[in-house]
Prior knowledge:
- By secondary structure, the protein is α+β, with helices and mostly antiparallel strands.
- The chain is built from 3 helices and 5 strands; from the N terminus they run αββαβββα.
- It has a 5-stranded antiparallel sheet, sandwiched between helices.
- The longest helix is centred in the middle third of the chain and has 21 residues, at 38-58.
- The protein is globular.
- The two termini are 20 Å apart.
- 30% of the residues are buried.
Amino acid sequence: MAIKWLTSLASMPNVVTATLVSDAGLEIESVGGAVVSPAGLAAETASLVRVTANASHQLRLGQLFRIAFTTDAFEVISIRVGSKHSLTVAAQRGADLRNLQIEMARLALQLVQDLE
């Protein structure tokens, strides 16, 4: 039986899609996806993390831990999971994301132990 890390995110209000992705763009696990493609979110997250981490390094800003942006319809949050993975969630715009961010941080700590 496959490990299901992201089930707690699937049950959270306003979460549309959540994905765990390697820095190479490999989708490890996803939930949701009826509105936002998990494969697309995984691939774009990996690309965005690479570019942003490189910019952070080049500008001597330090290590990248979190990226967040808002579109017309969604809030997208991506956090680093160790040195090789990212956890990204697309949620409905305007949603209260405090509990979601707490759960993402909790999962990231668990995933570092499981994946690294």
